[in-house]
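Chapter review. Work through the record for Aldehyde dehydrogenase family protein before attempting the end-of-chapter questions.
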Amino acid sequence: MSSHIKTEILQGDLYINGKWVSAPDQSYFESLNPATGELVGICAAATTEQVNEAVAYANEAYSQWKNTPIPERAAYLTKAAQLFEIRKEELARVMTMEMGKVLPESLGEVGVVIATAQYMAGEGRRLFGETVPAGFPDRNVRMVREPLGVVACITPWNFPVALGSYKIFSALIAGNTVVWKPASEVALSAKIFVEVLDEAGFPPGVVNLLTGSGRTVGQTLTEHLDVKVISFTGSTEVGQKLAEMSSKTLKRISLELGGKNAVIVLKDADLDKAADGIVKSAFTTTGQRCTAASRVIVERPVKDLLVQKVVDLTKSMKIGNGLEEGKQLGPLVNEDQLHTVEKYVKKATEEGGKIATGGQRVKELGGYYYEPTIIENVKPNDTIAQEEIFGPVLAIIEVDSYEAAMEVNNGTIYGLSTSIYTESLHYANRAAKEAVSGLVYINNGTSNAEMGVAFGGMKMSGNGHREVSHHAFDIMTEWKSIYTNY
Ligand SMILES: NC(=O)c1ccc[n+]([C@@H]2O[C@H](COP(=O)([O-])OP(=O)(O)OC[C@H]3O[C@@H](n4cnc5c(N)ncnc54)[C@H](O)[C@@H]3O)[C@@H](O)[C@H]2O)c1
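Structure tokens for Aldehyde dehydrogenase family protein:
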């Protein structure tokens, strides 16, 4: 392994009812650095009993927390935002060590956590109800938003803390209590996140952290009668399982799932801007983003020139350990993900794809590095044009018209993000209307969410819920209608 940046071995415990507790049978799993193979630390694997205990404490804490005035709840979030600022560098470094994204990206992610805490602290003041004209004399009718109870947040490894912050802060400001199950790959990042919340002084039981196996922790939470909401971000496959399991208790489930996002490039587009947007959205986070561009759908007359520009930019990217300055592309998260990428690239060439650049592991770096890869001659129904790869692999598909491009764009099971590059107002507006995806970008890559703007996907990319904005309260609250005869 090439880069040996020495660190102390960290330990992650569970956080239940305001206390750090170890796994009772001392069962700890390892967190490994995908850039070096070194041990970053060890983390407690929660037992079923501990999951039940955490839910019981969260349920107990709920009766107080839901009656805590919103400005007071907001004050805890504001305090947390200040404390995250102090631990920003430390948290970002641990994220980079655990899952490989380059340090500037990790720092940016902690920035998102801070912005989310501040945003939700403010948004709490706007948890408005409605008054409705009454149908009878001497009566008023109003509707109020009420919290639901214990919210279980289950998150993936690719955004170790930002996705937790979307869920946890919207749940808390609305008056719910939280049990968080982060992905095992990033359990130590989650631990630091919760240490900050602990220091911010949230009352015991309001926030709980359970690390460990998705099967044990995730399943127990999903089937638990006292868990009222499952807020999940992850793969479509696991999301489907959770939806099935949670149906037994009829709990609310919010699913943010996979994507197969495309950049459409029409022949009138500014190709330099398009190439820049494509490379950034295809290879940032080593392609391991739900909104990563994994298909380019380009009009035939500009295909060669566009591919040339995209390949040139891709070849200039600096691959390496994300803790080293100037690196733009880190390793894949683990060996499984590396093998998945290798398998897809092989399949693509078997199906007729032609590698324009990349297509190999970066063996000399050790770690789980894979070259950013561009594959031409891809047909719309080829495997790499249909399935989510979650790695630095971009398929180029040629078409003869805007209409054909949109048909290809919409021709997958996913519907998270669509981008189009064009100078035409006509086609830009048609794309905004015709793309079946929760996010549409015009003259911008596929991956660029802003605070306060609803985030989520259509079709198999989600089940219709939206995070980040005030629409998150449609997940975290339910309506109560009150009739008063006076
Ligand atoms: N739409 C979005 O907002 C968004 C954002 C980021 C990532 N993602 C998706 O996440 C996926 C990558 O992340 P991942 O590999 O961590 O996803 P994953 O679905 O494998 O795991 C997500 C979480 O679910 C847990 N889990 C796994 N199996 C479980 C089970 N049987 N029961 C309960 N919980 C279980 C995991 O431990 C983890 O915490 C990609 O598909 C990506 O598109 C979506």
